[in-house]
């Protein structure tokens, strides 16, 4: 069965997404999770988890940051809280978190999310043998490589089908360092909508912001794979992630609805090229005007990727 996973930016949006047909909500708090639309309080996480369970749906909590010592000290308490509110699973990127879960006997299923490291079945199966129930496939893996690895996977691999792609993360506060150098007292947070461009290529638009995990830089265009969903389904990639970090509000819910309808048609064998093209057009109309859309690395020849 296809599983649609979507981020949420508020309790109200979470409710709307559940009503729309999302199977799993993806939330968390900034201290532990990477590149979330918002950082939810503990009480908000509890409320959203309860609402998801009432609807017969699941919640995944982002615990996929690299936990430097000051953060790792806070991980056991957070894991205990997540166990208390009965979250369904967490994403984990730091092996230290897996160690803490095993050491403290905190039995929460985890999905391995090592970002750009997750590019082969060997990498995914390594973590499957150590308890992972799934893995988040790196955004840079083209479809030809996905086809080659599918039969070797011990656990399901999640694929980003809509949203922004991070192309660089550094623990260094690059923006703040620049502001310090230029003696500019400005905020480096996501809410400012900052971006950088390549020299002599003013049309490029690499979104950038800082938080406690460091500096994050995103690809020029966001991903929209609604036209490729049939291929993913045919090759048993059925965990589809929609990321609304740069696609806020009601329009994100409407975008998700397009994927829900696609899922429903695909599962009964009634998805056509005409329907896919219509969904592409509708999503383009709903997508933020200042952000482009393409299919990312999907159709690239693996030999072209450096």
Shape: globular
Number of strands: 14
CA-atom Rg in angstroms: 19 Å
Which superfamily, in CATH terms, is the homologous superfamily? Answer: Ribulose bisphosphate carboxylase, large subunit, C-terminal domain
Q: The biggest beta sheet, please?
A: 8 strands, parallel, barrel
- Numbering strands along the chain, what is their spatial order in the largest sheet? 1-2-3-4-5-6-7-13
Overall CATH class: Alpha Beta
Strand fraction band?
A: 15-25%
What are the secondary-structure elements, in order, as H or E?
EHEHEHHEHEHEHEEHEEEEHEHHE
Low-confidence stretches: none
Instruction: Quickly give the structural class.
Output: alpha/beta
Distance between the termini: 34 Å
Question: If helices are DSSP runs of H or I spanning 4 or more residues, what is the number of helices?
Answer: 11
How would you state the average pLDDT, rounded?
94
In percent, how helical is the residue content? 25-40%
CATH names the topology as TIM Barrel
Report on the structure:
This protein is an alpha/beta fold and 306 residues long. The chain has one domain (3-164, 221-304): Alpha-Beta Barrel (TIM Barrel). The protein has 11 helices and 14 strands. The chain has helices at 11-20, 42-54, 69-72, 75-84, 95-103, 121-128, 143-149, 174-182, 229-234, 249-267, 273-286; strands at residues 3-7, 24-27, 58-63, 89-92, 110-112, 134-136, 157-163, 166-170, 195-198, 201-211, 214-218, 221-224, 239-242, 292-294. Strands 1-2-3-4-5-6-7-13 form an 8-stranded parallel β-barrel, surrounded by 5 helices. Strand 2, helix 2 and strand 3 (58-63) form a beta-alpha-beta unit. Helix 1 runs parallel beside helix 2 (42-54) and helix 10 (249-267) runs antiparallel to helix 11. It is globular and about 55 Å long. The mean pLDDT is 94.
